[in-house]
Amino acid sequence: MREVYLDHAATTYLDPRVKEAMDFYWEKEFGNPSSLYRAGRHAKDALDQARTTIAQIFNAKPEELIFTGGGTEAINLAIFGVARMHTSTTNTKGHLITSKIEHHAVLHSMEALQKEGFEITYVNVDEYGLVNPEDVEKALRPDTILVSVMYANNEIGTIEPIEEVGKIIRQAREQRKTAGNQTPLFLHTDACQAAGALTLDVQKLGVDLLAINGSKVYGPKGVGCLYVRKGVRLKPIIYGGGQENNLRSGTENVPGIVGLAKALEISQKEQREENERLTNLRNYFIEEVMKRIPKVVLNGHPEKRLPNNANMSILDIEGEAVVLYLDAKGIYTSTGSACTSTTLDPSHVILAIGRPYEYAHGSMRFTLGKRTTKEDLDYVLDVLPNVVEKLRQISPVRMEVGQDTVSHPEAFAGQGSKIKVGGKNYK
């Protein structure tokens, strides 16, 4: 049976070139980088080289990078680190801002801080999942200490205007200085999903903290990195031996960190060509799905989206059922974030962009990768319509066009309307 993996937003395979770079540090040079003897010094050299490589990609200083055990930990360190440092230095709680479509690593951290007494503002997004920078500006208060807006959404692929938000934060800081307000204000972005496809130049983006992980860029799982701009003070969330500038104690995962650096290096070199290839495949797939299956809605921005992401609501079915039927045919995909796909709760992202519950329950996320071919997609396109037809025959739910509450009904396929994807109009 043919196997087609279309869940690269959940995780990616390890690039063989990355594995080759890591192998040497599993068995040959396995020393602890904190040790003074030769094996430890060699491990420390590898750690320093990886830090330098990633710093160059980030356009940052090596000492501004903190290695973690993954993207979730990096995000937690950024959010809790800023908030609790503020409390420890001022004995007061502060105000934080985020969006309603963030990854749960951000949302659940915010919920935890709210229970500690911090105030949180959740800004809305538009029907495409875009944060309006003006909404962020309006939400700022004199006691706002952190704004956290993701770089690209992990479910619908919408790319957020981080540069514009960064400019607003810098202007707000200048205004605070003029007014004599000493409250710090920082911008954090979760770049885990964006890392392989978009620039990670922190100077261009204007961010103070940026989190990534290895498993989304064909690197190893269980390793992440947090950029912390010089001058940003954090309170650690893990204590011990004081590694990583006393911000992340524990023996560094040298093979994983070497692998992360190699994966990022490869992605930067191949980014332009691969983005173009994936964009063409993605647009082809969206067009064909909408041609072959009626009552399909594209979720996310039609153009400001990650090149590999195709998220669509297929009405009158349950997305989980589609996942299982496709699995039986060797096709691996998801209904949304892999971190929450084991629950039956509707996607908070689909609801946040104004879709009804029925759209959320029928949402499917197809994310392409380096090994995805047109032949793979053609196989899915042969299988998917039959699966949808079978499930609709037994579905008790029927959503009609008149029930569509989406503010842009032209996104409805199979009704003689058009949708623009990648600069092309599709019927």
Plain-language structure description:
The model is unreliable at 401-420 (pLDDT under 50). This protein has a seven-stranded mixed beta sheet, sandwiched between helices. The protein has a three-stranded antiparallel beta sheet with strand order 9-10-12. Strands 1-11 form a two-stranded parallel ribbon. The protein has 427 residues and is of the alpha/beta class. The radius of gyration is 22 Å and the shape is globular. The protein is built from 13 helices and 14 strands. The two termini are 33 Å apart. The protein has two domains: 4-10 and 271-426, Aspartate Aminotransferase, domain 1 (Alpha-Beta Complex); 16-266, Type I PLP-dependent aspartate aminotransferase-like (Major domain) (Aspartate Aminotransferase, domain 2). Helix 10 crosses helix 13 (374-394).
Layout of strands and helices, then pairs:
Blueprint: E1 4-5, H1 16-27, H2 38-58, E2 65-68, H3 71-90, E3 95-99, H4 104-115, E4 119-123, H5 133-139, E5 144-148, H6 162-179, E6 186-190, H7 202-205, E7 209-213, E8 224-228, H8 243-246, H9 254-292, E9 296-299, E10 309-314, H10 319-328, E11 331-332, H11 348-352, H12 357-361, E12 363-367, H13 374-394, E13 419-421, E14 424-426
Parallel strand pairs: 1-11, 3-4, 3-5, 5-6, 6-7
Antiparallel strand pairs: 2-8, 7-8, 9-10, 10-12, 13-14
